[in-house]
Amino acid sequence: MKTSDVLVRQATRRKDEKLNILTIATHERCESMLAKTGHNFYAFVGSGHKNWNPKYAPIPDNYYLIKNHQIPFGVTFDVVLSQSRLAHHDFLKSYVNANQIPYITLEHTFPYDTWSKKILSVFTNMKGHENVFISDTSRKGWGFDESNSCVIEHAIDCDLFRPAVGGGPKRVASALSVANEWVSRDQPLGWKFYQKAITGLPARIVGDNPGMSLPTNSVEELASIYAQHSVFVNTSQISPIPMSLLEAMSSACICISTATCQIPDIVKDGENGFLADTPEEMRGIIAEVLSRPEDFAYIGEAARQTIIDRFGIDRFVKEWNEVFYRAADTPFLERL
To answer: pTM, whole model, 2 decimals?
Structure first.
């Protein structure tokens, strides 16, 4: 179907009405949480876009994949959702402009520190009717503030990512890390930092890393792996709030992380996790915790409570629905 044939509704929506939201597949577990808002999501996959990998999360019943750019005939879109200024904005903006559809930008990442002010200003000017960030540090990094954006932090399924029921078997004294394409994504994920920090220590990597590790076959298997390990290591450099770190905290792992972006606001050193500024410092902490993990179990328990208190699904759904309905009700003359 041609872009010009996409139908657009402009009437004010009831707050219990399901919206049709056009987007591009990005992060399976983040989008699984978005689907809990109850709306219908239509996501472009393939043909230059990411595909949905069911090993990372099953496709929700209200999430529909658009292949070969073939939008289902007769579908009326209420909102367009971009989840990356770098990868999605220009493509989705064509649907916004051609059909006067309300536009939401969501940013999962942090801008590269190698960008000049001129380059950053280009991305700052990529605005929607609603602009959402997953952390306040990310929002500030992209050049936005409270006057033109909002922050909605992640949600974690604490019933899925949890300690083994009944205590389960003793956790393995090994440092777990979860990352995909880690070597090629060294700048955001800190592969070289990790190599220095983990040298000579028992460790396990899970994720799509050719020649080094494989992803799990299901999200349930991943949840089980978190629950089997006493320690989780995160070396991200420019990820505002790594989803894997939050999942590990929810699983009551003893988490040891770099102190970057929004992480120090969530992980309180010595209370619900540990922070390290250098690979050498991180290596020392990992070695100490692995030598007597039972003595640090309270750290993992505090980490799980942090996730329960701050990253619950009910809060996430409420905040996102406020944004979705506010965008859907944007008057015609105010549209971009």
So the answer is: 0.88
